[in-house]
Structures are given as structure tokens and as C-alpha cells.
Amino acid sequence: MKAPTLLALTVLSISTAQAAEGVLTLACEGTVETTDKTQPSDKPEPISMGIIVDFTARTVTGFTGDFPVVAAVNEVAVTFGGFNRTGAFTISGSIDRVTGNVEVFSSVAGSSTRHFSLHCEPKQRTFNAQ
């Protein structure tokens, strides 16, 4: 293996490892579609939101609650899911680390569901909570 190729692979593996150890802040735009058992689904609504993936704490925030747990991380995807203490709220989703596409499904006590279809870009936080 040639030295430049070996160096590039080393840098890539180090940056991937570093990204999986810290916090990833995403700015996202897309749509959310809500379906309620008592009301038929309308068309998807536009949404703009932030998502924070804390690889150390293994959490994803930005949706309802801070409990979604990071299930798996690799070079191309982050998958997560979780539920609140009563089990009334569940969520599962994935973040494509190559394209920035995010798909998330959430459910509230089986009565309503939400489907988020987002495109996200990494952003740096401008202010830190004190």
C-alpha cells in the first residue's frame, strides 16, 4: 500500500472515531406528517429543527424528550430509538451520515404517529449552556 493511501485511511479512521466520541449538532429542514386515529392524515407540513447527537451520553435530542438512545454508529449511519418511562411515547429513526437524510417515526400511545423526513447539515453551536 502506498504511503499517501495509508495516510488517508489513517486520517479517515481517526476523524470517524473522533466524530463518534463527541457531540454532533445538526440543522434540519424537511417535512413532518402527523396521523391521528380520529382524524385522517393531512399532507406533510414543512418543519425546521435542530437535532443533537451526543455519542458519549448515547442520546439524540430535538424530538419530544431526551430519551432516544443511540443504537448503532458506523461510517454511514446512526440509528436510534427509545420510549418514555410509561412506554406511551416511542421513537425510532436513522441519520444517514453521507447524505444528511434523516427518517424518524414516533408514536403516542398508539393513537397518533408522526413521520419526519428531513435533510440535515452539521452546524457548530454558537452558544454553550452554562
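The record above closes out task 2.4. Task 2.5 opens with a second protein, given below.
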Amino acid sequence: MNVGINGKFHGYLRGTVSNGTFNPTATCAAACIGDTAVFISTFFGAGAKFTCSLGYAGCKFNFQYSSPDKTLKFHHWQDRGTNGVDEHFVGDIANS
């Protein structure tokens, strides 16, 4: 593995929130970044349920990473899926 490889990561996680009420004035500490459960409870309340955390029914996602680094043999990776039964991994980020 090469150290110091830079790239870009982007994507989305789409589902439905139930048993909660959206609070548009909520603020989130650094704990929200990368922790879906903390984000949902902060912005929708402690009792809120998110489909993507309940077995994937009604959940859709698509995450991608790419790097232009010339030392890499493979430059793009993608993980996408729907409802937990249709998940596809494409590509790799690797130098061999």
C-alpha cells in the first residue's frame, strides 16, 4: 500500500425516516460525520427509525472513490446497491 495517496470520495445514502420529526435547527458535532445513527437521532429525535439501518428495505446507496495518482494501477472503486439484495462492487484502488 502506498502512503499519501490522495483522491475524492462521494456518494449518497437514501432511505426513509419514520417515528421522528425533522428538526431544521438541529446542529451536529463532529460525531455526526460518518455516523448515520447519530445524525438521524440528532435531526429526527431519539426514537426515529431509518430504513437503511433496519435491514436495507427501502434503502439505496452509491459510494465512489477515485484517485488520479499515477502510482496506482487501479484508480476507481464503486459500491452501490438497492434494498440490500442488489449490491455491486466495481473496480479497485490499488497499486498492484
